[in-house]
Design brief:
Strand order of the largest sheet: 3-4-5
Number of helices: 6
Distance between the termini: 53 Å
Strand content: 15-25%
Shape: elongated
Number of strands: 5
CATH superfamily of the largest domain: ANL, C-terminal domain
Largest sheet: 3 strands, mixed
Helix content: 40-55%
CATH topology of the largest domain: GMP Synthetase, Chain A, domain 3
Order of helices and strands: HHHHEEHEEHE
Number of domains: 2
Structural class: alpha+beta
Amino acid sequence: MLRTVNRVVLGLGGLGLFALGGGLLVGALDLPRHWGFELPGWWPFRGADDVVLSDAGRTRYRDETWWWPVVFAVLTVLLVLMLWWLLAQLRRRRLGEVLVDSGDGVGALLRGSALERVLTAEAEAMEGVSRVRVLLTGRRRTAPEARVGLLLEPHAGPADTLGRLTSDALGHARDSAGLDRLPAEVRVRAVRHGPERVA
């Protein structure tokens, strides 16, 4: 979800800045006069001498009782949203601990980094795998999710390797941690290699 929010915020921010910059540029370069076209009546910047916010626009609502409460409310909402977004970026995405059902009703904690290392070692031991990167995400009390990056040798088959990863490495990790499920997102790439000569 955070990835989608990031894309939407960056897209809207970029679009707004592009529109504002384009509007200022059209007025500052006096393009309507040079290129012979008319701007719509609501266009705020019509010439090089126009300002972004005139005195009349700046003091227009100063005497209205609703103006300052609305200004402060909007600024407060924007500040809260920006702080939420910043904290969401800084929050650790890596899962620190996994809650394992030990059968005594209390449970045990398994370090996420230990499970990542075991997954990485077992996946790297598979034939045709050059390098593996594993990242566990999620929360301790819910089912963790694995993000796996596989770098395959040129002779390795992606379908076979993915099948073995699912049944062996991920299956063993799921069973050993006592998890009901271990969903995984796997990204597969091949090692770059030069062309082979056939004699």
